[in-house]
Amino acid sequence: MELLLIAAVIALLRWVAGKMSAEEETPAPLPPPVPAPRPRRIRRAEPLAAAPDPGPRADARPPSALPSAPMPSPRRVSPYARDFRDPASLRRAVVAREVLGPPLSLRGR
């Protein structure tokens, strides 16, 4: 009886070892290929053609008679904008936020 039990355990162990080695031998499926990056478009600045100044004309209206275009409103700038003009100061601000801000576990609560 003991011999039969030992033979069954050995057969079971060989079967488990065969299943495990079969899983290791099959290669994992390869990930899909990465598409090639799209080429970047280069913007080329068009040269501005400077028109020659023809000089004063007799039929030209005086400057006061020209219709005035509305003045654009000045851009509102944050008072902190001058502190972050260069990349080094922006990097310092991010580091300061990480050091002085709340820990990651408490953010978003």
Describe the structure.
There is one protein chain. By secondary structure, the chain is mainly α. The protein contains 2 helices and no strands. The protein has helices at 2-25, 87-100. The protein is elongated. The mean pLDDT is 76.
What attributes characterize this protein structure?
single chain; 109 residues; mainly alpha
**What's the Cα radius of gyration?**
38 Å
Amount of beta strand: under 5%
According to DSSP, the number of beta strands is 0
* Assembly level: single chain
The number of helical elements comes to: 2
H/E element sequence: HH
For the largest beta-sheet, the strand count, sense and barrel status come to:
none
Rounded mean pLDDT score = 76
Low-confidence stretches: none
> What is the approximate shape?
elongated
Q: From the helix content, strand content and strand pairing, which structural class follows?
A: mainly alpha
Intertermini distance: 66 Å
Q: What percentage of residues falls in helices of 4 or more residues?
A: 25-40%
